[in-house]
């Protein structure tokens, strides 16, 4: 299943770049799973005082612009060749970079500026990969989506169907597991810079992104694999063991997990003058750590010291109001909806003070109609924390938290379930006009089209059938 790196890896590129890299086979894109939204553009930052890091980097940037005018050309050529090689080495088999549209666009622009002709195989493959992000409307117009989420969508849909009572050996679930097993990434990526001795075994978010698997997708995939009765349990077990080992190895020093890297917490990249697009580092977050803890508990590792450190970090990160911040979903409703199921799976009792505070907070922000919602503005304005029009996905997140906390018979759960039932459309889906997914908090938001289906189905299923039981230790 390993996908080889470019054959150009390790080569030098004199005078601009390689002349004959191999053509990369592509596979059809599909399942345009989401749309993205950006907030209002930020105005240019004024020159900061020289005593802080902002001021230092701004002045360094100006100095480098002056240096550019007198820089030795041979030295500059070496630097450009190294940059070109780094970009080309990270082109995926389908011609894209990072599995998403923005880095593909920037890579094509950068290579073209470095002298790559549009007919070059690297450029052709890169441009062709962009076509797979085009959404064609009925009126003939096209919209370009930022990214696609097939792995994420598939594992969440698998869990939802299992929670809704589909037999664990149902052909659709087995087929989904087969596909996910084929998507395992068994070669190293850039994460190995910080974890050079760690064996690979994770999953990425997209169709092709072998350089950057992430712990969030890996955790959710393993949770999905364990819900299906597959005809080859040994294969599933081996993949799950590799995924759990890799995820444990990606734990940060503070006991928590970021999505793509370990200990990626430096504040300096955000200080760079050209960094005007929100958060660009990958620090540990409550939602990712919760998904990992939940997965480890279901793998029978709840008492592992590394899992316990993750639990301790989560308890310490609880917000004063009782919820948890949501890095990859909007916002505290998402974070809280991730953490409480994880704590329950790991054996934290419903009577724990942290759980009771979270339950009280969710009850306090429930809308009059019985649903839950949280506006994107909560990332900038505390007045919006837990506040917003009710949505199907956010209502489901709150219900998943409350159900995990033993609140099945409570009035908030009854009202939330009633809201989902009453707002379901005749075709079985729910309407959700608001963006509830997060790329960069406030700066880049995502509309996952399956969220309005998979999370309500999961919540309703667990209300009817109960929560899944973790595997026993050992």
Give an overview of the whole structure.
With 474 residues, the protein is mainly alpha-helical. The chain is built from 15 helices and 5 strands. Helix 11 runs parallel beside helix 13 and helix 13 runs parallel beside helix 15.
Summarize the SSE layout with pairings.
Elements lengths: L33 E5 L14 H18 L2 H17 L11 H13 L7 H11 L2 E3 L5 E3 L5 H14 L7 H12 L32 H11 L7 H17 L36 H13 L6 H12 L15 H14 L7 H12 L27 H13 L6 H13 L13 E4 L3 E5 L2 H15 L9
Antiparallel strand pairs: 1-5, 2-3, 4-5
Helix pairs in contact: 3-4, 5-6, 5-7, 5-15, 7-8, 7-9, 9-10, 9-11, 11-13, 13-14, 13-15
Order the strands across the largest sheet as they lie in space. Answer: 1-5-4
User: What's the shape?
Assistant: globular
Instruction: Estimate the mean pLDDT confidence.
Output: 90
Question: What is the structural class?
Answer: mainly alpha
Strand-and-helix sequence, N→C?
A: EHHHHEEHHHHHHHHHHEEH
Radius of gyration: 23 Å
Helical content class: 40-55%
Task: Give the class-level CATH name of the largest domain.
Answer: Mainly Alpha
Strand content: under 5%
Q: How many structurally independent domains?
A: 2
Euclidean distance between termini CA atoms:
29 Å
Low-confidence runs of at least 5 consecutive residues? 1-32
Number of strands: 5
- Total number of helices: 15
